[in-house]
Amino acid sequence: MKNRFNKKLVTLAVSSLTIGAVAACSSAETEQAPAQPAEQSIAADFAFQNAVSAPPPGYQGPVFQLSHDYPTEDPGQCPQSECPWLYIDVDFTSGVPVNWEEGPWNDYIMAIMSVVVRGQDPNMPNEVGFRTKIDGETMWYHVPWMAYDPTAGREFAHGTTNERTAHLSDFIGSPMPNATMLQSMSPSCQAQFPHGFESWAVGMYNKWGGYALGQAIPDTGEPALTTLEGQTVPKGLPFPEGTMVTKFLTTNATPECVPYLANSAVWLVNRHEVAPDRQYLCQRALQETRLTQVDVAVVDERSPTRWVYGTFGYSAEADGDTVLARLVPLGLQWGSDPNTFPAVTAQDSQPATESVLNLDVGIYEHWGCASRLAGPVDNPQSSCVSCHGSAFAAADGAISVMGTNVPPSFGFTGICEAGGSPENAAYFANYPFPQAYPDPKYAGAIPLDTSLQLEVAFTQYATFANNGKPTACTNPDQF
Ligand code: HEC
């Protein structure tokens, strides 16, 4: 019951700031309590709590508020003013390699960014963070159930999460560890951070995405399922055209270690402390973290997967007077290139045609597997669309375990190496919603239309429903 207790503290701590939202929350609780079985109102409590723990006494900084007043009416076709990228002439099916300079790619990704930055403070200072309300209107919605897991769940300052739900001891040494090295680190820096850097990120959906989220996880906090083309799927999915998602990623790397982070936004987030030997611990404290990457994803029916993913990297060297102006577009990806290594053998491989990389960047390594797109803090053996395509929930309400009852999003033995292996062929395939993951091993898994935040949410709900409590955080063995 620790979480419920903490949640009450969060509510108290923020009540003076966000009276409207808190009132909406507690009235839902009190209205539901008599009519619903007790478990349901507890599910809603956990689903929509703001953070895994409350701010410490005397904390004066920003307090994250989960934006979950999802639209209940279909927002309809997205107009040019809201989705300018949908009105740019673009061909995602040419089947030939494309380059950044020749084509509408820069215009496309900058059109997305122009909407992301609307109403935001251009320097993203700690006190402000990312605004979900602009001029009093809610523009952005968060995914519920991401403040349940004490290891990686949302922290109270900016609502960031530590990428994936795992035990801290798994972070190091797994095929795709959570803490990674960044490019252009000096050797002394590597010695200072032998366990790499942690990435804490916060993602939000626009109105079109929020409309789908609210149906997939309604007020009860329990995922709602339906059947589509013979598949069990969450209600409200697929995300409608017009959906846009953005994710702000921060790193605990310092500018001394990674010079291109100089003068980036510095946020104080409640993240893992480090042991004397620099391993990351369960214990959390408010510590600095810097904006390094901004990811975007949109539903565009012209894409063979219906999705287009894109990413920006922060660069101290870029022209621009503000933090947001120094975000450099790195590339776009609209498919996993199923005819390119390692989906096929090196012999059969054709050049990649479903990613376009901005090569005129210099400082960043942002190649994923075999010329596909990945971000600077992503694993170079994967790619945006390949990893996101593998977003599934376990069948029959089971707790998901990647590689067992849901696809191995974070990798498997031989990823990006064993060309043509069944695992690589499945991981680098295109299979739009609601198709099953191409590996029959995961036949019953529920497709989540590329939303890995929804995968976290479904896993956390299943943990709650099966165990009644979140999985405890475990420290690494030795420090
Ligand atoms: C190896 C896996 C992996 C790769 C590669 C990856 N991501 Fe993600 N991404 C995740 C996970 C896990 C989450 C959800 C957890 C979180 O945000 O804490 C996520 C969340 C997101 C979200 C929020 C929407 C959602 O899915 O719930 C966006 C947008 C996003 N990523 C974009 C990108 C882009 C753009 C790239 C490539 C530049 C990329 N991702 C590469 C694993 C990956």
- Return the domain count: 1
Low-pLDDT stretches: 1-36, 164-179
The count of DSSP E runs of length 2 or more, i.e. the number of strands, is: 13
Give a quick account of the main beta sheet: strands, pairing sense, barrel closure.
7 strands, antiparallel
Strand content: 15-25%
Secondary-structure element series: HHHHEEHHEHEEEEEEEEHEHEH
Assembly state (oligomeric): single chain
Q: Which kinds of small molecule does this entry bind, naming each only once? A: heme C
What gross morphology would you assign?
globular
Indicate the structural class.
Answer: alpha+beta
Radius of gyration: 21 Å
Counted by DSSP, the helix tally is 10
Explain what the structure shows.
A hairpin with a 5-residue loop joins strand 7 (266-274) and strand 8 (280-299). The strands form 4 sheets. Strands 3, 6, 7, 8, 9, 10 and 11 form a 7-stranded antiparallel β-sheet that branches. The model is unreliable at 1-36 and 164-179 (pLDDT under 50). 51% of the residues are buried. The two termini are 30 Å apart. 21% of the residues lie in helices and 16% in strands. The protein has one domain (72-467). It has 10 helices and 13 strands. The protein has 479 residues and is α+β, with helices and mostly antiparallel strands. Bound molecules: heme C (HEC). Heme C (HEC) binds at residues 161, 163-164, 176, 201, 203, 245, 247, 295-297, 309-311, 373-375, 378-379, 382-384, 387-388, 409-410, 451-453, 456. Residues 161, 163-164, 176, 201, 203, 245, 247, 295-297, 309-311, 373-375, 378-379, 382-384, 387-388, 409-410, 451-453, 456 line the site of heme C (HEC). Residues 1-23 form the signal peptide. Keywords: Signal.
